[in-house]
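Below is how a single chain appears once it has passed through the pipeline. First comes the sequence as given, then the structure the pipeline wrote out for it. We keep one example in the README because the format questions we get most often are answered faster by looking than by reading.
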Amino acid sequence: MPYQNISATVSDADVQAIKAAVATIQQKLPFLVTLTLAERKSVYKTGPNSLSFVENALQAAQNNPNILPKTLDVVEFGSDVDLFAVMTDINTTVAQLASEIDDTRMAVGSEAMKEATQVYNYVKTAAATTPGLKPLADQLGQRFKKASSAQPTPDANKKA
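Resulting structure:
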């Protein structure tokens, strides 16, 4: 669906239902692991394209057990291949959902930021003539001070 301005709400009940659905997924996959950075660097990198390779290797192992060392557990290998296939399928589905959630968050965040910037500009302008708005303008302006303080000022590049 092409992007257009988003006007939607998510009820508290729906947020709770979504979180419960995620919790259900986690309960259905109690074996999920979290790899450390070092572990991520050390494991074979696999993706959907690797699936056919491991499935073909499993078929070769099952059809030719006499060429394999006794230490290679073909049944466990088959279980790993089956789980890899299932996790690849689930990952594809969840990755698509995560991408859609992130794109929607980014789009609606952009809309909100544009509107908030307009409000800030109106508050800044009104603060010059309306008593009591200066603290609000200063508070809203903090967001831009943090962003601009990370960038060097043009004067910082000049030599005295």
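The mean pLDDT is 90.

See the next section for the split statistics.
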